[in-house]
Every structure is written in C-alpha cells, then in structure tokens.
Write the structure tokens for this entry.
Amino acid sequence: MANDILKGKRGIIFGALDEHSIAWKVAERAAEEGAIFTLTNAPIAMRMGKINDLAAKCNSEIIPADATSVEDLENLVQGSMDKLGGKLDFVLHSIGMSPNVRKSKPYTDLNYDFFQKTVDVSALSFHKVMQTTMKLDAMNEWSSVLALTYIAAQRTFPDYSDMAEAKAMLESIARSFGYHYGSAKHVRVNTISQSPTRTTAGSGVKGFDDFIDFADKMSPLGNASAEDCANYCIAMFSDLTKMVTMQNLMHDGGFSSTGITAKMLGKD
C-alpha cells in the first residue's frame, strides 16, 4: 500500500537490469510512493536488460553512465537535476561485478587486473558517485545515499571470491564519506546488507543456490526478498530515517545474529 512518503522527492537509481534486480523493485516502489527519478546503468548492461520497460512503467528518464567514469557521472548527475527540476533527495547504488567470479578464477589464483576491475566497479564507484554529487552540490539537505552489500564483507564465503573485499571497501566508504557528507551537508550515507537474493548478478556466483538454502535455514525469519529490500530502501530514502547514517544495516531475516538453528541441525 502506497502512502506517498516520497512525494516530491527526486533521485537516481543505479543498477536496474531486469525484473529480478533489487534496483528494479526499488524503482517500482519509489514511483508508487510519489518519487521521480532517473534510471542509469552501464551501456553494456542496458543492452542486456529491460530497463526501457521499467522507465516506461515509472515514467522515468534513462541516462546511461559507466559508474567508473567521473565524466559519465558528472553528465548523469547534472542531467538528472536538469530533467527532474532540482537537487536530489536519494541515490541508490546497486552495482557489483567481478570478472574473476564470472570467469571462475579460484580465490588463490586471481587475475589482479580483474581484481582491480572488481574494486573499481563494485566499491570505488560508490566514492566516485558521492564525490561527484558533492562537487556539483547536487544533494538536498537530509537526503539519503544507499548502497547494497552482503555479509561476505565480514564473514568468509569461499566462492564469493574478490567480491568480499569489494563489499568490505564499499562499507568502509559509506562510513568515511558518511562522516564528511553528514558534517558538510547533512546527507546520510548507509549500506544495506541483504540476504542472498536470486538476481541476475547474484546467480553468477558458484554455488549460489546453496548460499540461498543455507541462509534461509540459518535465518529465523527466512531470507529477505527483493521486494522486502525495496521497502527497506524506501524507508531509508524517506524523512522517517533522517538521523540514520554511516551504518551497515542488516536486512537478512536474522542471519547475521544467529549461531545455529534447529533447521540446520535437522530438528525442524
């Protein structure tokens, strides 16, 4: 049920590929709650997905951008303000990619050029996005910047490979930039650590079905769905959470606080 809690707010949503993307669900919910926003993804990703369908559904403009390119980001941010008619109130960074994972390189035999690409796309791009919005004075006071992460930043999941390092850096950037953005502009910066979710990108991780099954058995509430994550993002974009910043917010059905469960022991 919509309550117009984002009515009058403007934003940018990165990373919607198809209807399985969390960013796609966030865009749908943001539109339902009254927000206007631009959609963006790398040109190659846009050719693989269905972002035009989402744009039509949400009455949104698409501005292609490579999030690793400062020039592209400057065009995106300025173009978004021009199209939306003012400064921004929220940004969602839902981007992650590892060439090492895609090419099934074992963690103990990584290609370091691929590793640098992983970090650039999955973590450093978050800093570039915020540095760009700050330099262009693009965010309203009390606006919200979010990135999606995973608990592999704190715990070892062998097949998650170098994405774990990228997520750890992403969360660190949120804390560090959150301090500076909060002090300068009252902009809040947070990460949401989501349950393993059956997205196009996530499904590329070896053993992903086992990830999902294990997490579901370890979570008292079960795995959080993409739709539930979208609802959490909407709450974080809203004025109801305006004093929350520099946090890594667990959205995982209790997985991160659970040691063992009856289901894992075969007693349930």
